[in-house]
Every structure is written in structure tokens, then in C-alpha cells.
Write a structure and sequence with these properties.
Helix content of chain B: 25-40%
Oligomer: heterodimer
CATH topology of the largest domain in chain A: MetI-like fold
Largest interface: A-B, 60 and 62 residues
Order of helices and strands of chain B: HEHEHEHEEEEEHHHEHEEHHEHHHEH
Radius of gyration of chain A: 25 Å
Number of helices of chain A: 14
Number of strands of chain B: 13
Largest sheet of chain A: 2 strands, antiparallel
CATH topology of the largest domain in chain B: D-Maltodextrin-Binding Protein, domain 2
Shape of chain B: globular
Amino acid sequence: MAWARVSAALWRRPWARATILLTPPLAWFVLLYLAALVVLLITAFWQINPFTTNIERVWSLNNLTTIFSSSAYRGIILRTVGMAAAVTLVDAIVAFPFAYYMARVASSRTRTMLFVAILLPLWASYLAKVYSWLLIFTHNGFLDWGLGRIGLGQPRLIYTNWAVFVVFCYLWLPFMIIPVYAALERIPASQIEASQDLGARTWRTTRLVMLPLALPGIVAGSIFTFSLTLGDYITPLLVGGTSANFMGNIIYTNIGIANNVPFAAAMALIPIAIMAVYLLGARALGAFEAV
Amino acid sequence: MMTTPTRSFARRMTIALGLAAASIIAAGCGSSGSSSQPTGASAAGQTVPTANLPVLQKIGKGEGQLNLIAWEGYLGPIWVKPFEQQTGCQVNAKYAGSSDEMVSLMKNGGGGQYDMVSSSGDADLRILYGGDARPVNINLIPSWKDFFPAFQSPPFNTINGVHYGVSLQWGPNVLMYNKKDFPAPPASWNVIYNPKYKGQVTVPDNPIQIADAALYLETHNAALKITDPYELTQPQFQAAVSLLAGQRPLIEKYWALASQEIFDFKNGNAVVGAGWPYQVSTLKASHFPIGDAIPSEGATGWADTWMLAAKAPHPNCAYMWMRYISTPKVQAEQAVNYGETPDNKLACGYMNQLQAGSCAEYHANAPLSYFNSVKLWKTPIATCDNGKPDCVPYAGWVSAWNTQVK
């Protein structure tokens, strides 16, 4: 009977019910996620002893000053943002017609097949996918061999930023297609018919009706492609060459190899800041209503 | 099976993708707490924080587990399996690609995770002055008496007579070349600085590579007056760094893991470069036409130590491992498999039993002059040998490697 009394007591006090239900997820969020981020932010203003690499808790802006005063680090930030923007742009250009076909043209059977084709690679291991690209790009690998056979020469893309770019575009494409598909599918048929009734041809309807209505979906997808490229360090490590230094790589080498956690934390502040600005822009463009 | 995808399906998928993306980001951000007390500024005049910790007096019952940080190729089943059977200590391996990574791993999570690390001379001082290594009772390791004197109490693992581990093996960093492209072994390291081999050179992604450039300049630029490739004054250091910056266009890939260099030689992405005997023996084992040489300028090298972690969770198994790994037979097995020189002078006979002529091939019976020709890795510190604070410390090496070379 005790349980009945408890449930009756909870029924009378909705605030108690809400507190009990919300405490575990909120505690998880605040303690594990926010607290870890705050610790990271604080660490960014400490230093390490250059010899023993032990952390010295002395407050200073040295890490951030080093990043912004060094042309090498500024170049790395620009290269990372440029790569993320280029990957996002190409994924959007590739994803739009694909999602358009899925949402508007394909039969339901084809559409299911296409969904499977998009989602299947997401279940494969990230590393397996990157390594398979390594084999495609390597000297005398599949790409060099194939292009050589049709007389286009050997591009030797392995260990270049082109290779990194192609692999990023491939890896994050599904993250763009799905939100664009969701946005395109929501456009009421009546609006397209209205456009056609008013004399607009296919291209004009696409450009002036479909594209603006799909924009929130594209922006939603771009959050994924942009942020994933901004933080990835494994693809540049494996298929990138001597100039494949991205922000993620600097953070990785400073934490995993140089043991300079404060500097890595300072570097990690930069993608956080960039994404904060990006998300504000995305919200203004209606990306969060698209999902 | 999926039916007609509906709007809500696509919406759910988008949310699922968002979660997947978040988990990918999260996977890339392994947390690494590092807590330790601040220490003084330089190595000179510093004390080892753990120097007064008590040492084990008698090896007790094994704990059943042993967590080791090692170089790739250092935990071959040939010698690890018998150890596990004899002692019941199961060996859990974590491989590291560079000395810096080893220093970092020993600190991770406050340092209670690993028992030992097979670190090189350039990492040892950083580990023990950082308070992450523990004194070792060398009397519990009988084979230590059979070590070459240079490796019994070397300055990189023994401070004021206190041992922080037991020496293991040593060897040179060799010039590797594809025999198809180089019918005769190159006589000089200049091949890895020669524009003729643009796009075909590979060297380690490691700041200590600056010492290799300095060693080359020691012979080829007498005006710099370099005497020790690990003690470089600012002008000497800058010359070595510019040599490496000039080498960068020749390089397609700085290798971070031994397996990457093996992949690149096999696939023709590199035909010449700097590497370890492990890559050479692995490529030879797969019948690849790899050659290795120590050119006329000499070579840098390493001398490794199994260091005992300050908070080793399985000390008895760790002592059993040190006792086992320093015996002549095991020393011989590792030396022949990896292609390096054992520290135990009795290993020579066992090496020849395993592979005829290997004792001489890997210099296990070489005179002291050979030992002196290899410049063993050590941590560059601000204080030069002459006592003046003119040398570039290791932190300067790291930042030059990341911002001026790469």
C-alpha cells in the first residue's frame, strides 16, 4: 500500500513529479557535459612546465596569445574553416538533386532503396571507410590505375589535402541528404502547382520556390557537415600529407602526444566559438524549424 | 523492412543523424585529466619527486595482469606468451608512436593505469622528474649484473644511484631505402635532403628529428661547430630547422606509426627515408626489397628502459617482467626479432642460435667505439654541457617542429 500512497502524493504535487523525472537527465547534462566543458575552458588559461609537462595553475592568456600571434596557427584555423566550408558547399550541391529525386520523383520502392543506400555506409566503421579511401588514393592504387587505363595520367592524390577533401565529402554526405530530403518533402504540392499555373517552368520553380523552402534543411545539414569537418583529425592523419594540419590535429597532438592539455584546451575554444556563431546564424535562417 | 518513408521518418532520421554526429564529435574528444603538483623550472638542480618512495623488498604473488606501454614490436608473442604461462600475469599492451606520446600516456588519468613503459632516453628524464616513475630495487633483477656497464646505471634512468627501471635494448635510427631504386646503399644521409627524390622521402613525425638534421650538419657545416646534436645553441638549432624546412617539399608524409611507414614503402609512396630496424625486419619478412644503412655521418639512436610507473597497480608482475625481459635468452629473442642490440652481454650466444651471425649483425659483440658512434636520444634541456643556459630546450624543439618545419 506504500506505493499507492507515494503515487497519490506525487499526483497531488506535480512539481515533485517533474523534479524526480528531470533530475537524472539534468544531472547527467550538467555534471558530465557542462562541467567537463567548464573545466576545459578553465584549463585553457593555465600552462605546463615545459620540461616535465606537469600542469602549472598560473593564470594567463599565453596560450591564446600564442595561437593568434603565430602565422602558422592562424593559417591552420583558416585552412580548417575553409575546408569545412568547401565540404559543406559541395555536399549541399550534391545532396540537393539527390534529395529532390528521392522526395519528388522516385517511386516509393526506389526511395526505400535509396534510403538504404544512404544509411548503410553509416553502419560501417569510420576507420574502415577511411582506410578504403587510402587504398583508392595510394600510389598505383585504384584511382591511379583506373585513370591511367583511360589515359588521364596518374593524379597521385594520396597525402594531399584534395584527398582529405574528397574523404570528408564522402563521409558527411548522408548528414546533408537526410535533412534536405525532410525539407523538400514538406513542401506542399499546391505551392509547386501554383508556381506552374503561373507559368514558371521547372528550373524557375526549383530556383524560386523549392530552393528557398528547402534552405532551412540545407542549413540544418550544413551544421552537421561543417561541425564534423571542423573537429575531425583522423582523416587528415591517415590520408593527409605534410600540410594536413587542422585544428583537430593540433588539439590531438597537444593532448595525446605533447601532453600540453592547456594549449589543446585553448585551441578547442576556437571551434566552439566558431560553432556558436554558426548556430546563431543557422537559427536565424530557420534551420531548427526544418528538423 | 522499411516501408514508404514518411515525413516523420525523415525527421526521426535527421534527429538520429544529429545524435550520431554528436557521438562522433564526442568520440574525438576523449577527456584527459592531468593532475600533478607544479615543479621547478629546469632539470638542473631538480629533485625526483618520487626518489624516497619505498622499493619492493621481495617479489610476491603475481596480480594476474600487467599493463604495458611499449613500442610497436616490443611485445612479440614469442617472448610474451611464455612469460604469461610462467607467471600467470596477462600482458595488456598499449602501443605508442613516439616518446612524447609515452610521456603523455604515463600521466593520463593521474597515472594509475599502466605499470611500465618501454621509454627511450629522451623521455625517461621527463617521466621521472614529472613524478611518474618509481624507484626500482635492482637486486631483485639478477640478470642486471650481466649487462654491459654502459647500461647498468645510465644517466637517463638512474639518478643519484636510484634506479627507476631496468635498461632494455638499444640501436640506431637507420636510413631505409628501396633496393629497386638504390642498387647500392647510399653513403650519406644527403639522399633524404636531395630534391631529386621529391615526393618520395619519409621521416618520422617527431621533433627529435631536428637532432638528425643537426648530426648531418655536424659533418657538412663545420662553421656551426655542432658537437652534440641534442645540445644546440640558437644559431645551430636554427640551421637544423631550416634544413628540415627545406626538406618538407620532398616529403609526402611524415610517418606517425611504424605501420604507416611500412605501408608507404610497400605501396611506393616512399622509396627512401628514416626509420627503425622494426620496419626493416617487418618489410624483409614480407620479402620486400628493403635496404638499411648507417651512412657515413653516423646515426641517432635510442636506448630503451622498462620504467616502473609511480602508481603501478601490479608491482609484482612488473618485477617479474623486468626479471624475465633482462635474461639473456629473452634479450636475444627481442633483439633478433626487432633488429636491435641487447643490453645483456650473454645474449650474443643465444642470438646466433636463433639466427646464425645475428650477434655480429646487430652489434651485440661490437666494441665500445660502435656504441660511441651512435648518438643516443636524450631530452634537450636549456643547460648545455658546459653549464651555460644557451641551449634550446625541448619545448622549443616541439614548437619549431610544429610551426616552422611542418
